Give the backbone structure.
Amino acid sequence: MKKVFLKFVISICVISFAGAVIFSVVTRSIEDDFLEGQGIEKMSLGYSNEAFQQGSLKVISYKTTMIGRIHNTLDKKATVYLPYGYTSTQEYNIFYLMHGRGGSYKTWLGNQKHPREFKNILDNMIENGDIKPLIVVAPNLTYEYGSDDMIMEGTSHEIATDLMPAVEGQFNTFAKGITSDSFRLSREHRCIGGFSMGGSLTWHTLKDHIDYFRYFIPMSMATYYDNKGYSRMKSLAAAAELKGSLNSSGYTSKDFEVFAATGGMDHKGEATAMQVFDLADDKEFVYTDNYFGEGNITFKMWPGKWHSYKTSYPYIYNALIQFYGN
C-alpha cells in the first residue's frame, strides 16, 4: 500500500512540475476527497485570526561557537512562543521550528508588537484543545558557514549544543536540567521541523541528534539540495546515511516519528516525496498512511500548493495534532 500511495503522489508532483496545473481546475469536492483520503485535517479559516487566549513572544540571545572554527563565536537570537497561561510550575512540550533560505528568527512568529499569522494559529490550536500547550522556538540558520551542507550540519549542532540549553534553562520543559542526559531523557517531548532549507536541517537533525528529539517535521525539502529537484543518487545516498546513523545510535523505528509534507505544485515536492520513498524499507523506516502506531514515517501532499510559508501552515497543523494532540 505504501509504495502504491507514494508512487501515486509522486506522479502527481511530477506532472505538476512539468507545467500541467493539475489541481488548478479540480472542484473543491475532489480536493477535499484527496485530503480526506490522506487523513488530512482541514484547518479552520478562523485560525488565522487572533484568538481570545493569546500566547506571548519573547526574544532570547545566546552565543554559539561554529564547529571547526574555534575562535568564531557568534551572537545569536531566537524567538520563543510561550502559550497562554504559561507557568514555571508546569512542564511543556517544545517545538523547534526552522525557517528557509533568506528567513530569520522573525519569519514564523514575528514579534510581540507585530505577530505573524502562524502565531495566531498556535493560539487557536491551543485554545480549542487541538494540541496540548507547547513552547515554540524559532532560531536563525547560521549562514556564516557558507555552503549549504555546512549550514545544515553547523546549525543542527548549534541547536543541540547551545540553543537548547539557552531556551530550556530559562523556560520550563520536561527536561530536568540542561545536561545531555536530561535532554535524552526528555526527548519524547521534543520536536523539530522546518520549511525548505529548514526542512533539510530537520533531516540532518534526525541523522545527528535523534537522541534529543522524537518528532520530526521536514517540509518541502529532502536532506540534500539540488537545483534540478529530485536526484536519485543524492536521495539514496542520504537515505543510506540516515539509516546508518540510526543503526549506530541504538534507536529503532519505535523510537521516532517523521511527518513529511509538501505541496503538489511545490518545486521541491518530488524530492521530498522521493526522500520518504527511498527511506521506507519496513526496517528502520516503516511507512504508514494513517497512524504512527502502524509505522514511523508518513508523507502528505496538499494539492495545488506552492513553495511558501503560508501554504505550509496546514502541514504543521496536522503534524502537531499527530504528535501533541489532546
Summary: Residues 2-324 form a domain with the Rossmann fold fold (CATH 3.40.50.1820).
